[in-house]
Amino acid sequence: MAAYETTRTAPFGAITTFRFVQSVGSLFAAIGNWNDARVTRNALDRLSDRELDDIGLCRDDISRIGALGRN
């Protein structure tokens, strides 16, 4: 029975290209997350204090919406 080696090294520049595409994708995801947090903060900012209290938030909580994912 014969065995063949089927693994090959990546072509020149393939890993660099993959990392570049991955970083561009991460950049777009970060921009999307930032925009989602911005839209949410704007919507919450339009609510009255009573409406915020109904959902368990206060005005100070709104400013922390975008910072939750950052450490």
Automatic annotation (TrEMBL):
<dbReference type="Pfam" id="PF06568">
    <property type="entry name" value="YjiS-like"/>
</dbReference>
<dbReference type="InterPro" id="IPR009506">
    <property type="entry name" value="YjiS-like"/>
</dbReference>
<feature type="domain" description="YjiS-like">
    <location>
        <begin position="27"/>
        <end position="62"/>
    </location>
</feature>
<protein>
    <submittedName>
        <fullName>DUF1127 domain-containing protein</fullName>
    </submittedName>
</protein>
